[in-house]
Specification:
The chain contains 18 helices and four strands. With 460 residues, the chain is mainly α. The strands form two sheets. A two-stranded antiparallel sheet has the order 1-2. A two-stranded antiparallel sheet has the order 3-4. Strand 1 and strand 2 form a beta hairpin. InterPro entries: Dipep/tripep_permease, MFS_dom, MFS_trans_sf, MFS_Transporters, POT_fam, PTR2_symporter_CS.
Length: 460
């Protein structure tokens, strides 16, 4: 499962000074833009599920939310009658999924019309508008719609720009750049739930959402400040002569990347369930007392960002140590290892879940350990997968393919919502065992296909 990755020094994007841990300056601005954007996103998301259950679904509020009852009717037409918890989980999962579905269209918009930079700015503006509307109960669904569209324009295109900072063949450094990129992002994931969760608990839901909007404005300002250090836009020209046709090999590479992305749906669902049913587990069954203060359940989501940040320097040091000895795993091997770690994280939770099934309350150390292992598995596979797509996807459709990769997270979140409905019917131990099985199945599939896909995606 381990093969030597290329370690030959390859220059960064031409004309960009090396300044950020040996990486181009553009990485600094892209990473910090996403850090503030993720601070905003995770701060808002950490409140969303409990906000729906504890406020929007109360009898005095539900009728005032535009189209809310119609949405519930539509969902229950497909699923049958739902409890408030199950309906809230469905809404949360639809939102969490759709923000990873729209990057496909954001990538197409960038590749064909606007270019990556203008599309990112458009996305940031839409997200600011969405956060403003979250200050009002009535405009809740409109706000979610704008946030979904804005994230679609922003998410995949920033990731594509990170990959474009590096020349072809610079596989090892590109993968490490995406790990650094995600360390900055997870600084936002760490602080967002803490800041917005505490402010919402003290001052009310809408103050928490308002802070998320202000943070998004900061992200937009940082992106604009780094404009001259960003890679030039790559967009398909309208005339056929300027657009190179995809070859047969290009189409085989696209098919292989789509297959790798599809496999990722299973461990991705196991990972993201910690922010859905896992949050309900913490709220109802975990001792959250600390020095006489009850830690808000939403604030536990900050652990994901914390442990992702902690994992990055450890993994970069490990990979550099392996590279010096000619033993650094290739991208597909790193992805496969990540899936195994996520399977182990969920399998571990069978122990405390079994105790909860018997009526006990369990220590907060159990969800802390779950977040730690899940984060380690995520940093093994997700930045590596982004680097793989960025390197291997044909230039003509690079942003579109990056958007398609985020589609795996969309589908995973739909699966999370479906599986969260089993929280009230399965034992908690069986629930976590099911998710361990999903991630382990992906691990086994990757073992089977790693060699042929690895040969196809290798540098020509």
């Amino acid at each position: 499962m381990v093969a030597t990755a290329s370690t030959a020094p390859v220059p960064a994007m031409q004309g960009d000074e090396q300044s950020f841990f040996g990486h181009p300056k553009g990485l600094t601005y892209l990473a910090f833009t996403e850090a503030w954007e993720r601070l905003s996103f995770y701060g808002m998301s950490s409140l969303l599920l409990l906000y729906i259950i504890q406020r929007l679904l109360t009898p005095e509020i539900a009728g005032s939310v535009l189209a809310f009852n119609s949405l519930r009717t539509g969902i229950e037409t497909l699923t049958g009658p739902l409890s408030n918890q199950a309906f809230a989980s469905q809404v949360f999962s639809l939102y969490s999924g759709l923000v990873y579905f729209t990057p496909v269209f954001g990538g197409m918009l960038a590749d064909r019309l606007l270019g990556q930079r203008r599309t990112v700015v458009l996305g940031a503006l839409l997200m600011v508008a969405g956060h403003v509307l979250m200050a009002f109960d009535a405009s809740f669904l409109i706000a979610l719609f704008l946030l979904i569209l804005g994230t679609g324009c922003l998410k995949g295109n920033i990731s594509a720009q990170v990959g474009q900072l590096y020349q072809p063949g610079d596989e090892g450094r590109r993968t490490r750049a995406f790990a650094i990129f995600y360390a900055a992002i997870n600084t936002g994931a760490l602080l967002g739930p803490l800041v917005c969760g505490v402010l919402a608990q003290i001052y009310g839901w809408h103050v928490g959402f308002g802070v998320a909007g202000a943070l998004m404005v900061i992200a937009l300002v940082i992106y604009g400040a780094g404009w001259k250090h960003l890679p030039p836009d790559r967009k398909r020209q309208s005339n056929a002569a300027a657009s190179k046709a995809l070859t047969g090999r290009d189409w085989r590479i696209i098919a292989a990347l789509l297959f790798v992305g599809a496999i990722a749906i299973l461990p991705c669902a196991a990972y993201f369930q910690e922010m859905n049913a896992g949050l309900l587990f913490i709220e109802a069954s975990v001792d959250r007392g600390l020095f006489g203060w009850i830690i808000p359940a939403a604030s536990f989501n900050a652990l994901d960002g914390f442990f992702c940040i902690m994992a990055v320097p450890l993994l970069i040091a490990l990979w550099q140590w392996q590279a010096k000895r000619g033993r650094e795993p290739h991208d597909l091997s790193k992805i496969t290892i990540g899936y195994l770690i996520i399977a182990a994280a969920n399998l571990m939770m069978v122990v405390p879940a079994g105790r909860v099934d018997e009526g006990e309350t369990v220590s907060a150390l159990w969800p802390v350990a779950l977040y730690a292992l899940n984060a380690l598995g995520f940093i093994f596979y997700w930045p590596t997968q982004l680097a793989l797509y960025s390197r291997a996807a044909p230039a003509q459709v690079n942003s579109t393919m990056m958007g398609i990769l985020f589609l795996s997270i969309f589908l995973a979140n739909l699966l999370v919502g479906m599986l969260a409905g089993l929280w009230e019917t399965l034992t908690h131990a069986s629930f976590f065992a099911l998710h361990a099985g999903l991630a382990f199945a992906a691990f086994l599939i990757m073992l089977l296909v790693m060699r042929p896909i690895g040969k196809l995606l290798a540098q020509p």
